[in-house]
Amino acid sequence: MGTDRNSLRAIDAGGVMPKLRILRASDNSLHGLHVGDFPNVRTLYLDNNALRSVEKLGRLPKLENMSLRHQRGRELQFLARDAREVKRLYLSGNPLKKGFLDERCYQLVYLELAACRLRRLPDGMAQLVPNLRVLNLNYNFLEDVGGLAGLGRLRKLTIIGSRLKETKGLLGVLESMPELEMLDSRMNPCTLGWYLPVLTKDVVGSERGRGELDRRFRRDLPDDVYVGRLAYRGLVMRRCAGMRSLDGVDVTEKERTKAELVIRGLLGNIK
Fold first, then answer.
1. How far apart are the first and last CA of the chain?
2. Which of 40, 49, 94, 170 could make a disulfide contact with 30, Cβ separation 3.0–4.6 Å?
3. Which residues contact 204 (CB under 8 A, 6 or more apart)?
4. Which of 116, 50, 41, 127 is nearest to 85 (CA)?
5. Which residues contact 60 (CB under 8 A, 6 or more apart)?
6. pLDDT, tens digit, for every residue of 173-230?
């Protein structure tokens, strides 16, 4: 059932709808929603409303995909205990308290938490979402990502535009992520100056085009800045052997070899 962009303030099903599998009601003016009448819904899209809560989520045992992005008005009251069986959860644009992950969510594989004003990560995150594959933490206020340690099945992690001041903590966390294939940590204090601004990619039509822009930018970097960037990338590759894309730039075997030589040279100079 689709009811997007209709200025709705409420949804009255008029009774139980057991055959409904998908409910889309984004871009409306919903202040509250009771979903108990949709027991077999698998996908629930409610972006850009004014929801403070979604009632009776616990009555949707088959719910797999839920999106509650950008609720306006009062703070969204969301607790993971209401969506323990969800596989893909989108909460971007909502201020969230650190304790919103209050239950183990073994089914969750995709979690989007961009611009949620997070200053700290939930305690014991690896135990709460042990099967997570994709995590988006862009544009938060995180100074430490130690809480991510132990997310061993993670394949994609983005932390663009946060407050990470040094790479040491991030590199330490990566030790426990052997399956990671994509990492983006641009626009943090520790990576500023190593890459073009993130918005540049929006005006380039292909991966090839973005790669060419990065090569031009990289050639103009001062030697010490270039070495710092290459050493960081090499240390990430050491920890995540399957890394394919790092900070928006594809990883190549040529770069792996070059980075390893730089790291060995730096370690030799330290000795």
1. 66
2. 49
3. 210, 213
4. 41
5. 35, 38, 39, 40, 41, 44
6. 999 999 999 999 999 999 999 998 886 455 445 666 677 888 889 888 899 999 999 9
Which residues, including other chains, have CB under 8 Å from residue 215's CB and lie 6 or more apart?
none
Angle between helices 253-270 and 223-239 (to 10 degrees): 110
Name the residue among 220, 160, 153 with its Cα closest to residue 192. 160
Residue keyed to tokens 């995150």: 125
